[in-house]
Automatic annotation (TrEMBL):
InterPro entries per record: Alkaline_phosphatase_core_sf, Phosphodiest/P_Trfase
Annotated signal peptide: 1-26
Pfam families to which the protein is assigned, alphabetical: Phosphodiest
Keywords: Signal
Name of this chain's protein: Alkaline phosphatase family protein
């Protein structure tokens, strides 16, 4: 078989997806854990889909596993803290990662080569901007024949990062790669220390952060760049393209189930801990339209529209393919599938949407600050605003943080609704603002923490900060739509556990399933993160 060839499991058509779902459980002594993050998926989406598709792979997971129906993601509900929480057992206060694009008051700006006397303060950008070439699906590796050859990407994406764009450690005057920025170790590192194989597939090379502080956690890390050029936009601007993109990562997992590396060209053995994220549901929830069809949910916010329906069907089919391949390789009874999501998406109801141009709000805040303090720098040094507002300030004094809070809560204006018609907003679209010491307390860190935002704004339901009309939902906030995600662990008789749990509990649960000590993880020890109930 030629390297990188995309192989569709021949057994898939012959097997019922329902009966193909693995049944390994903690008591069986699982030898493999396959973690699947369906970004954007809500618990309500999973419940409705399984009820409407009783022979689906997703219904099969529920029929042969434990479903935690009150699971919540960390805050902020972004991809980085969401996945890092699942794989470390910690919230941002412990992991030090609050979002994919943040600010650090102690590091030096990217590009600093002579560190003496340099004023600290640096953006920490863990997005596609770090790629050697973000316009290419291979992030600048230089493969020919893209996109079909993308499975030939390196399993060490650290080589695809532009070191000149990394913040600099003032103690060493060296760039800080993503894995060194993470404060705690990962499940992958603990597994490696036990002699187990690890693999993961995700959307940017910056996900090499999952290697953890040792830099060696993930042996095979496949990270095709989702924000690279694809047709007239990137892979997220059309849901059919996103499904094609997710298909490459799904094929990597199929190759790994078969005992190969992600490319399918080198036999290395099936990993003990492996998995991927799917982007198709998230894209379908955000896009107003795609391929001439309506994106998101239908009015009322409970029934998926045609684009989202297609995305759910696609993800279900790929999960069914994983289950069938595990069965065909006789790995079904030694493999536990864990299904969850890094984050949800808000709002589900298109009628609740209010889009607000956050750039205008922050320009106004900076102008008002400088008017009161002639000659002062702009107050906002970095912002990350999706459906929450995270601000890092140049002046962190109580007076400055109070000024920012009061200014934002005083701003009323006009945004747009889901049809791009004018829609009034109040208080900058914010419901509650935590600033200064209050923001530190909210996240559970000391005032003046180098990484935590100086202001965290909780939005009114339905508010999305964007300067245009290209999206109808986002994540990052605290609404149930952002945080109420599924959490299902395959194996054993069907059980529904309604007690509240956190997705950070996935990390110690993975180690428990593999017969390893959950307390080997620093974040688990620091936060007392428990194995999921009924599995411990």
């Amino acid at each position: 078989m030629s390297p990188n060839r995309i192989r569709v499991p021949a057994v898939l058509a012959a097997l019922s997806l329902l009966t193909a779902v693995p049944v390994a459980s903690a008591s069986d002594g699982a030898r493999h854990v396959l973690l699947i993050s369906v970004d954007g998926l809500h618990q309500s989406d999973l419940t409705a889909y399984a009820a409407g598709h009783p022979r689906s792979a997703l219904a099969g997971l529920l029929a042969r596993g434990t479903s935690y129906t009150s699971a919540r993601t960390p805050v902020p509900s972004d991809s980085f803290p969401g996945l890092i929480g699942q794989l470390t057992g910690g919230d941002p206060a412990t992991t030090g990662v609050y979002y994919d694009a943040t600010y650090n008051h102690a590091l030096l700006p990217a590009g600093t080569t002579s560190c003496a006397g340099v004023q600290p303060g640096a953006q920490v950008d863990l997005t596609e901007n770090l790629d050697r070439d973000q316009s290419r699906l291979d992030a600048g590796q230089g493969l020919t024949g893209l996109p079909g050859s993308v499975l030939g990407m390196t399993g060490n994406p650290r080589t695809l990062l532009n070191a000149a764009l990394l913040p600099v450690d003032p103690r060493t005057c060296r760039p800080v790669p993503p894995h060194e920025y993470l404060k705690v170790d990962t499940v992958f590192e603990v597994a490696r220390q036990a002699g187990l194989r690890t693999a993961w597939s995700d959307k940017h090379p910056a996900y090499e952060i999952l290697n953890g502080p040792s830099g060696t956690g993930v042996q095979d890390l496949f990270t095709p760049e989702i924000n690279s050029a694809a047709g007239t936009g990137d892979w997220t601007t059309d849901n059919a393209a996103t499904q094609q993109y997710d298909g490459y990562k799904a094929q990597a997992v199929l190759n790994e189930i078969d005992g190969y590396d992600h490319s399918g060209s080198r036999r290395v053995g099936t990993p003990s801990v492996f998995g991927l994220n799917f982007q198709s549901v998230s894209t379908a929830q955000k896009l107003p339209t795609s391929g001439g069809r309506t994106g998101g949910y239908l009015p009322g916010g409970t029934v998926p529209g045609p684009v989202l329906t297609s995305a759910l069907d696609f993800v279900d089919g790929r999960i069914g393919a994983f289950a069938a391949e595990l069965r065909s390789r006789h790995l079904d009874r030694s493999t536990t599938i864990i299904l969850s999501a890094k984050h949800g998406q808000s709002p589900t109801d298109p009628g609740a949407l209010t889009r607000i141009d956050d750039a205008r709000l922050l320009d106004g805040l900076n102008a008002a600050w400088q008017a009161r303090h002639p000659g002062a720098a702009e107050l906002v040094v970095h912002s990350t605003d999706d459906d929450a507002m995270l601000l890092w300030l140049t002046d962190r004094s109580p007076a400055a943080t109070a000024f920012a809070k009061q200014y934002l809560l005083a701003q009323n204006g006009t945004g747009t609704d889901s049809a791009a018609a004018p829609k009034a907003f109040t208080h900058s679209g914010l419901r509650t603002v935590y600033a200064g010491a209050d923001a530190a307390r909210y996240f559970g860190v000391r005032p003046g923490d180098d990484r935590a935002p100086d202001l965290f704004g909780v939005t009114q339901y339905g508010v999305v900060y964007t300067g245009g009309t290209k999206k109808i939902a986002e994540h990052g906030g605290v609404a149930p739509d952002d945080r109420a995600v599924p959490l299902v662990v395959s194996g054993g008789a069907p059980r529904t556990i309604p007690v509240p749990v956190a997705t950070t509990q996935i990390a110690p649960t993975i180690l428990h399933l593999l017969g390893l000590n959950p307390r080997a993880l620093r974040a688990v020890r620091a936060e007392g993160t428990r194995v999921l109930p009924a599995l411990g």
